[in-house]
Specification:
Length: 334
């Protein structure tokens, strides 16, 4: 971190300030005296340094971070890829392609079990399904809630597929005890209380990117979970809001190699919520695999026109079968 001091800073002010930085943050300080101003270089772990406190000091002209504010999620301090074992046969980040597939919302036992059976046949290794749904309208279907969780477990019993489903509240964490991967939705990416509590569990977390979050903000949310003790975090790119309205969101394909460079955490891509249209799911999913994604999460519904949520972006089981086949062929070719 580089701090530029204002001209005319007295040597007493300078000593007071540098001593405080050293004791508060355990850093060493290099100092350069120029003709007009003095520059300080802070060396050491500056992740805990409060940049706003420094900016607020009357002798400070400007501050610049030269190191990323995230540490545990940073590849610099953890060069090898993180692998997250979900079950005996499923490890995410091990170089193989994993597809999580299933409906946006769990609607009935028959629906979730039949979708689970068919996506499994097509090569999906995890079952997705929302039980608690964050809907834009309070009048829209809000999910089957705890009954939905039970139905996911029924589908897991019948197919062996591990389950991934979204949590919305801290008070529900106990209810998610038997879920294999807990999803934090885009709207909750900065629900810091939820992130902190999930950090105290040992559950794998699928952390979706917020609708308008920068890559750094997203990594800082991962850092919240990791700083509390849980390093099993997967980052899910699901499209961000741009000025384009043709698609539901804009899939940020560049985020995949960027995250891979900045972080060691696995990257999962959700082409369904990025696209908003079922015919766009295949090309976006192919692009994600080509760009280095470790996995995909894809919405599949047995009867998309009658789905209780996100029907327009849901593939039928037959469409999913063909898309999955092409994705695995592409992965093999790569
Ligand atoms: C979902 O997965 O159904 C969902 C609501 O996703 P997102 O949080 O990305 O909108
Ligand atoms: Mn959905």
């Amino acid at each position: 971190m580089i701090i530029v001091l204002k001209p005319n800073t007295s040597s007493e002010q300078l000593t007071l300030f540098t001593e405080k930085l050293k004791t508060d943050y355990d850093v060493t300080i290099n100092r350069w005296d120029g003709i007009h101003s003095t520059v300080l270089g802070l060396i050491g772990d500056t992740t805990r340094v409060d940049i706003e406190y420094i900016e607020a000091q009357s002798i400070v002209e400007s501050v610049k971070r030269v190191q990323e504010p995230y540490k545990k999620a940073n590849r610099k301090f953890h060069p090898e890829n993180t692998q997250i074992k979900i079950t005996d046969g499923v490890t995410i980040g091990d170089g193989s392609l994993h597809i999580m597939a299933g409906p946006c919302s769990v609607e009935s036992e028959e629906q979730i079990v039949s979708i689970a059976e068919s996506v499994k046949k097509s090569g999906a290794t995890l079952l997705r399904g929302g039980a608690f749904k964050p809907r834009t309208s309070p009048y829209a279907f809000q999910g089957l809630k705890s009954e939905g969780l039970d139905l996911l477990k029924t589908a897991r019993r019948q197919t062996g597929l591990p389950i991934v489903t979204e949590i919305m509240r801290v008070s529900h964490i106990d209810m998610f005890e038997n879920v294999d991967i807990i999803q934090v939705g885009a709207r909750n990416m900065q629900n810091f209380e939820l992130l902190k509590e999930l950090g105290k569990t040992d559950k794998p977390i699928l952390l979706k990117r917020g609708l308008s979050a920068t890559i750094e903000e997203w990594l800082m949310s991962a850092e919240y979970i990791m700083a509390n003790g849980n390093s099993k975090v997967m980052l899910c790119e699901r499209g961000i809001r741009t000025y384009e309205t043709f698609t539901r969101n804009t899939l940020d394909v560049s985020a995949i190699p960027v995250i891979k460079r900045l972080s060691h955490l696995p990257v999962i891509v959700d082409p369904s919520h990025a696209a908003g249209k079922s015919w766009l799911v295949e090309p976006l999913a192919m692009a994600a695999v080509a760009a280095g994604a470790d996995g995909l999460i894809i919405e599949v519904h047995n009867d998309p026109p009658h789905a209780l949520s996100d029907g327009a972006q849901s593939l039928t089981p037959e469409q999913f079968d063909s898309v999955a086949g092409r994705l695995f062929s592409l992965k093999k070719a790569l």
